[in-house]
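In these records, each integer encodes one residue's backbone shape. Here is one protein:

___
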Amino acid sequence: MIDQPSASTRSPASPPARQPASPAQRRLKLYRSSDDWQDQPRNGSRAEQVPPVPPDLSGADLRKQDFSGRNWQGINLSRAYLSGANLSAAQLKAATLIQANLYEANLRDADLAEANLTDAHLIGADFTGADLPSAILRAADLREAILVKANLNHADLIGADLRAANLSLADLSEANLMRANLSRANLSKISAYAANFSRAQLWQADLIAAQLAKASLYCANLSGANLIRAVLTGSTLVEARFERANLSYADLSRANLSGANLRSANLRGANLSRASLKQADLSNANLTGAILFKADLTGAILTGAILPKATCSE
């Protein structure tokens, strides 16, 4: 029988092997030492002629970290975890953030021009004053996000979820929000000239004093929405739903409301001059003091509509 070594003669236990850093962690260590990745030294005698390669932090765990003011133009942050991170005033132009998690992240005053945030998780994120012109936010989850005074000019928000988001004073000029869900969103005083809201959900949205001239709201659902003093001059509202919506003193001159559902809508003092209301349903609508100069009401349903003091001539 072989004697077992005593405890005093046994070799000390080897320390557990350290787990190797993930590729994303190694890349983060490389790039976080400099505020400007474009200043990283490059090898080769012709380095000054070779454009820098944007850093790749795809899949990295960057939760609750401070990257404020960082210059990360063109960076790849696809599927990165950035919930609660501070990216205020960060330079993220043309960055790739596909499916990134930015839950409640701080992106105030950040530059996200031409950035790709397709399918990104942005619930509760703060984009106050952020620049997002021509950004791609298709199918992004922006529920309860803050986009006050954000620049979303020409942005792609097709199918985005913006329920209860705050977009007050945002610039959505020529942005594409087709099929976006903006139910209960705050869109007061937005600038959305020629924006596309076709088939969008705007149920009970706040659009007080919104600038929507030349916008398309084809088949959009604005039931119960507040559009007091909104400007919809020349806009396309064909077959849109406005049941119980408040359009008092709104400017709908030259708008196309053909086939629109305006049942029980409040159109008190609204300007509908030269508007097309062909086949529109105005049942029980309040048109007190509305301006209907040269409006086309061919085939419109006016059952129970209130029309006292409505102006139909110059």
